[in-house]
Design goal:
Length: 201
Amino acid sequence: MTDMSTHSPESTPADSADPTDPADSVEPAVPAAEILDIVDENDEVVGRSPRGEAYARGLRHRCVFIQARDARGRLFVHRRTSTKLVFPSLYDMFVGGVVGAGESYDDAALREAEEELGVTGLPRPEPLFKFLYDGGAGRSWWSAVYEVRCELPVHPQVEEVAWHAFLPEDEVERRLGEWEWVPDGLAAYEHLRAYRSPKNP
């Protein structure tokens, strides 16, 4: 794969992103109808709701965030498609998504990572920690953060990913103030940096 560390998304080589125009992609209706567990501030299940309704009503649910690195240790970074239900067209340094009703965080992490990266046979992501994300305006979800090494060729879903690349971590750090990132991903990234800090007990 071409090293993307010196390229902007606007000049992405064809071998590093799907050539399909994301504007032509429409997110399927099924995800909005997917049933989610609704949870309280202690991550206890208090009900169930279709995904679209959970978003519309601001009901707290569960999500997984997986940091994927290639064989060289570079981070998988992508821009979401304009058809996403939340945070369309923004950048993210995690893959992941919602946890289905009755699904475990661990199972959701593997499923979402394989789906978004477009691979099969991925190692099971390693769980790191959980935190409660609260972005205001009814956007709150329990967030489980994972990491995984992906040494397989990736083929991200065109419904999910408009652009992608594996970038060195210092490149990601430089882009934090230049690109518009998903707020929950940024929060997870900050938590992950603190988790990996030498001062962390």
